[in-house]
Design brief:
183 residues, alpha/beta, Uracil-DNA Glycosylase, subunit E, 4-stranded parallel β-sheet, 3-stranded antiparallel β-sheet
C-alpha cells in the first residue's frame, strides 16, 4: 500500500502526517571558529551528496569562494578546509525534521529537532557571530534555539544562498555576506 503524505496547516504551523525524518550533518568545525553559518536543514541534493550546499545552483560555495579567495570548484574536502582556515564553522539549525523536497517552506515545524547549540557554544567560545542563511534558518533559530540558551553570540540574518531566493542578485548577496564576515 502506498503511503500518502498530506501535510496539514494548523494555526500557521506546518504539521506533518508522515514520519519520514531527514537528519542533518555534523558541523564543519575547525580550531577557534569566529563565525558560525547556519542553514535550516540540508536539501535533498545535499543529503544525496553528503555535503553541505551541494545543489549546483546554490550560491553558497561560489559566494564564499569569491569572498575568501578560493576556487568554488575545488573538491569538497578542500573547500571545507578553506572555511576552517578562515575560522568559519557551518551547521544547520535542525538536527532533523520532516521536509518533503528541498524548500524551507515545506519543513514541518512540529518535527523539528534543533541541534545542541548550548554545547557547541560552550565548547567554542571563540564564536562571536551567527550568520543565518535565510529567513527560515533565522526564524527557527530565534524560536527553537535562542530560548534554550543562557547567552548567544550576535546574530545576523543574511540573504539566502538558495536558488529559490531570486529576489536579490549574486553581487548584492555577496556584498551583504562579505560585510557580515568583515571582508
Amino acid at each position: 500500500m502506498k503511503k500518502i503524505r498530506t501535510p496539514a496547516r494548523k494555526a500557521g504551523v506546518r504539521v506533518s502526517t508522515s514520519r519520514q525524518i531527514d537528519a542533518g550533518f555534523p558541523p564543519i568545525l575547525g580550531a577557534k571558529p569566529r563565525f558560525l553559518i547556519l542553514g535550516s536543514l540540508p536539501s535533498q541534493a545535499s543529503l544525496a551528496a553528503a555535503q553541505y550546499y551541494a545543489h549546483k545552483r546554490n550560491a553558497f560555495w561560489p559566494m564564499l569562494g569569491a569572498i575568501l579567495g578560493f576556487d568554488a570548484g575545488l573538491p569538497y574536502a578542500l573547500r571545507v578546509e578553506k572555511l576552517k582556515e578562515a575560522r568559519i564553522a557551518v551547521w544547520d539549525v535542525c538536527a532533523a525534521a520532516h521536509r518533503p523536497g528541498s524548500l524551507d517552506s515545506d519543513i514541518a515545524t512540529d518535527t523539528v529537532t534543533p541541534n545542541d547549540f548550548a554545547a557547541l557554544f560552550a565548547q567554542n567560545p571563540s564564536i562571536c557571530a551567527v550568520l543565518l542563511n535565510g529567513g527560515t534558518a533565522a526564524d527557527l533559530f530565534r524560536t527553537r534555539v535562542v530560548p534554550t540558551l543562557q547567552s548567544c553570540p550576535d546574530r545576523h540574518r543574511l540573504p539566502s544562498t538558495s536558488p529559490a531566493h531570486a529576489g536579490m542578485n549574486f553581487d548584492d548577496k555577496r556584498g551583504r555576506w562579505a560585510a557580515a564576515l568583515g571582508r
